[in-house]
Design brief:
The protein folds into two domains: 138 residues, Rossmann fold; 215 residues, Glycerate kinase, domain 2 (Alpha-Beta Complex), CATH 3.90.1510. Helix content is 37%, strand content 19%. It contains 16 helices and 15 strands. The radius of gyration is 21 Å and the shape is globular. The protein starts with a strand and ends with a helix.
């Protein structure tokens, strides 16, 4: 029997390869004869660079760029296809975990470091750049990123932040890096939200990044003003609200293409080839919830496996999705550390390496037996 283990990270606890390793150990404990194929995945957030680069047998380059509060941070970009393609993980430069909780304020954060990573990739000769934008601390509509690549925002000093958007008098693109027009940009987004409105970047995501109700409205108005300067770029495109509007900014300034993050990563790691002949696919992430159903990693994995008539089971840190909801995607069952062991989220995070093995050992044998 062949089982494919296609997990995203359990944020705050285990990265994707560690999740895969824990589940594999749990299954091997009770079924040592099972063939297991490891397939760590990402949907544009944490782990994107390492997972794609390793799968494509490329290499990484470490560089210093400006972080979300304009301090220097260390980030990696991946180079694959003989360095013709660069992989960028925005969260390495502007991720929310880079800021202490009490200092989080999306009116003060900038995406400038993402632009620096793009510039580094261009310097290395990449003709195609793939950017994963999950997990950001910013709500600046990608203006910081654009500024790092030469765009000038009249009446605003550097770096651009979410709180400065409403002050933009005009935008000068004349100094935008000339190499950009000959470069292909694909953006891995993990949400389908538009830029503006009740389900947009400011109102849905900025509170998670530390915004007060008043700041939410400031950011919404700023993004609306920014968008008014680019009437030719839709604010309704799915994913344009991702990463505080960085999705929209990459389209507006770099003519990028927004794509489902998990679909893009699954293509890059050759997922269809890996699951050929598989009897079961096990997938999951730290929190399997209704936002997951909008196209995060477990759903992307499930859709492809089900299309090849392979049953899918989800293992998560926690979940609050009903069988009726996840069943629509062909998932036959879902188990979580919190529910199975009746413990808190906090305890599940600290004990995940052990409990994930125990969970896999407890619940997966029934599916193995049914397949034999």
């Amino acid at each position: 029997m062949k089982i494919v283990l296609a997990f995203d990270s359990f944020k705050g606890s285990l990265d994707a390869p560690a999740v895969v390793a824990a589940v594999a150990k749990g299954i091997k404990r009770v079924s040592p004869e099972i063939e297991m194929i490891p397939c760590p995945v990402a949907d544009g957030g944490e782990g994107t660079v390492s997972i794609v680069t390793e799968a494509a047998k490329g290499h990484t380059v470490t560089t210093a760029v400006h972080g979300p509060l304009n301090e220097y941070v260390t980030a990696q970009l991946g180079l694959i296809n003989q360095a013709k393609t660069a992989i960028i993980e925005a969260a390495q430069a502007i991720g929310l975990p880079l800021i202490e909780r009490e200092k989080r304020d999306p009116t003060l954060t900038t995406s400038y470091g993402v632009g620096e990573l793009i510039r580094n990739a261009l310097d290395m000769g990449a003709g195609q750049i793939i950017i994963g934008i999950g997990g950001s601390a910013t709500t600046d509509g990608g203006t910081g990123m654009a500024q790092a690549l030469g765009v000038h925002f009249e009446s605003c000093d550097s770096p651009m932040t979410g709180g400065k958007l409403a002050n933009i008098a005009s935008i000068d693109l004349s100094a935008l890096d000339k190499r950009i027009k000959n470069t292909s940009f694909q953006v891995a987004v993990d949400v389908s939200n538009p830029l503006l409105g009740p389900s947009g970047a400011a109102r849905i995501f900025s509170p998670q990044k530390g915004a007060t109700p008043a700041q939410v409205e400031l950011l919404e108005n700023g993004l609306r003003h920014l968008a008014s300067l680019f009437p030719q770029v839709s604010t309704e495109t799915a994913g344009s609200g991702a990463a505080g509007g960085l999705g929209w900014g990459l389209v507006a300034f770099l003519n990028a293409e927004l794509k489902s993050g998990i679909d893009l990563i699954l293509d890059l790691v050759g997922f269809e080839n890996l699951i050929q002949g598989a009897d079961l696919v096990i997938t999951g992430e730290g929190s399997f919830d209704r936002q997951s159903l909008q196209g995060k990693a477990p759903i992307g994995v499930a859709k492809r496996a089900v299309a090849m008539n392979i049953p899918v089971v989800v293992l998560a840190g926690d979940h609050n999705v009903s069988p009726e909801e996840y069943g629509q995607y062909g998932i036959i069952n879902c188990y979580s550390i919190c529910k199975y062991f009746n413990i808190s989220v906090e305890e599940s995070i600290t004990k995940a390496p052990v409990l994930l093995k125990d969970l896999a050992a407890s619940v997966i044998p029934q599916f193995i037996q049914s397949e034999l």
